[in-house]
Amino acid sequence: MKNLIYLILILLIVSCSTEEPNFVVSGKVRGLQKGTLYLEREQDSGWAVMDSMVINGQPDFVLQGSLEEPEVLMLRLDVANLDSQRLKFFGAPGVISVHTSLKRFYYDAKISGSEQQELLNAYEDMISRFNEKNLELIKKQLETGNDSIQVAALKQEMDNLLKRKYLFAINFAITNKTSQVAPYIALSEIFDANLKYLDTIYKALPDSIAGSKYGKELKGFISSAKKDGLN
């Protein structure tokens, strides 16, 4: 009788802990013949596998999982004799489409079906312009040689560019405060900014976003930094 009770309890625990998939990631990796795709989520400072699929001849894939709210996930591709390739994206309940290539797994990625990812794309498009301008200034600095006046001028221009980049990120997060992307940008892009700016972003978040995964992480980050005497 005791064994039967224990068996029933185990079955109840398993059935209660099993989450029904509520989102699907489907797509194609052009040029891929053999390999394994993993769908992963961040967990305990690492990445845990949610689903995986072995590709053998067909480049199409379908992966699925369960999410309580939108969060950043990762597609990891393992192919024999090649380094693992990784692609981060904002996952959300529903259907998400990812099309890319084996040769340019990250750079060729086209992702649709996630409002958060579309917003993050808009942010990254603008940030790429700042980065390109910074590379131009670095090139000029290298070509300048020992001209101290020009070197100082270029350094000042680079400092001003970095300030504009940070201000853009802060304004973008506040403007889009109703999306999980806002606290995510604060955590991943401008975590080393002055705490008053991170605090401003957090205080601008509505309750639904402040209580989200990244909203809670941003609050914890700010609290820890203040305890450590950072500003």
Describe this structure in words.
The chain is of the alpha+beta class. It folds into two domains: 2-113, Immunoglobulins (Immunoglobulin-like), CATH 2.60.40.10; 118-227, no CATH class. It is built from seven helices and eight strands, in the order αββββββββαααααα. It has a four-stranded mixed β-sheet, covered by helices on one side. A four-stranded antiparallel β-sheet has the order 3-2-5-6. Strand 5 and strand 6 form a beta hairpin. It is globular, with a radius of gyration of 22 Å.
* Biggest sheet architecture: 4 strands, mixed
Cα distance spanning the termini? 63 Å
CATH level-two architecture of the largest domain? Sandwich
Q: Tell me roughly what share of residues is in helical segments.
A: 40-55%
- Approximate shape: globular
CATH class of the largest domain: Mainly Beta
**Whole-number count of domains:** 2
Brief characterization of the structure:
Helices cover 48% and strands 26% of the residues. The chain has 231 residues and is of the alpha+beta class.
